[in-house]
Specification:
The protein has one helix and 23 strands. It has one domain. The protein starts with a strand and ends in a 16-residue tail after the last strand. The strands form four sheets. An eight-stranded parallel sheet has the order 1-4-7-10-13-17-21-23, with no helix packed on it. A seven-stranded parallel sheet has the order 3-6-9-12-16-20-22, with no helix packed on it. The chain has a six-stranded parallel sheet with strand order 2-5-8-11-15-19, with no helix packed on it.
């Protein structure tokens, strides 16, 4: 689509769930946005389908030509997509709990069928600029196998799942910063590897490039 895409406050955009029939589900149509994607307060975005979410045999490789911004969004799930600019997610997340999810999360058939609590997850995402997730409060947060051309920062993120804040197997060309997160960045059960950062990591963010990596910790 031309221009920007905005998911309005309290709205839901599901560009992930495959089509019918359920026995041999089809891939959803790939979404290509020339401009920015903005996810407003209380809104939910599901972007990209892959074997890690919904699509068992292929991926859609959705694209965003500008930045992707989440401002107090309820949940943002991005899989196997590319964002030419920055990804910035500030606040939101529905609270530091794994309780029954509110609308519009509870209105999505795939999320409701799987009884999934609110979470934010970026997997196999290519980011042309910086990646920042700041002050998120949710059930779970993960950034796995992402490639970031700029710097990456995870600051003040609090999740209720003790297995949350899984930051692993990423490639970051710039700085990597993890600070003030609860729990601290970890591998969890992702079977991931340390994130590779071209610059010295700061905070609780051991990196594969530097010999500070500790067993059982992510980032």
């Amino acid at each position: 689509m031309d221009g920007d895409l905005t998911v309005a406050p309290g709205a839901l955009l599901d560009a992930t769930t495959p089509g019918d029939p359920a026995s041999t589900p089809l891939l959803p149509g790939a979404l290509a946005v020339d401009g920015n994607v903005n996810v407003e307060a209380g809104a939910v975005l599901l972007l990209g389908c892959s074997p890690f979410i919904g699509c068992t045999k292929a991926a859609t490789f959705d694209t965003v030509g500008g930045n992707l911004n989440g401002n107090q969004a309820l949940g943002i799930l991005i899989h196997s997509a590319s964002v030419a600019g920055n990804i910035s997610i500030t606040g939101g997340g529905g609270g530091d709990n794994c309780g029954p999810p509110p609308a519009p999360w509870s209105s999505d058939p795939m999320l409701a069928q799987q009884h999934l609590p609110v979470y934010t997850d970026l997997e196999d995402v290519s980011v042309g600029g910086n990646l920042r997730i700041l002050g998120l409060q949710s059930c779970y947060l993960a950034a796995l196998r992402d490639q970031v051309a700029g710097s990456a920062g995870f600051l003040g993120d609090s999740v209720a799942d003790p297995d949350g804040n899984e930051i692993a197997s990423n490639l970051v060309d710039g700085n990597l910063t993890c600070y003030g997160n609860q729990p601290a960045a970890q591998f969890g059960d992702s079977n991931g590897a340390p994130t590779s950062s071209e610059a010295r990591p700061t905070g609780s963010a051991p990196s594969a490039r530097w010999p500070r990596t500790r067993l059982g910790r992510g980032a």
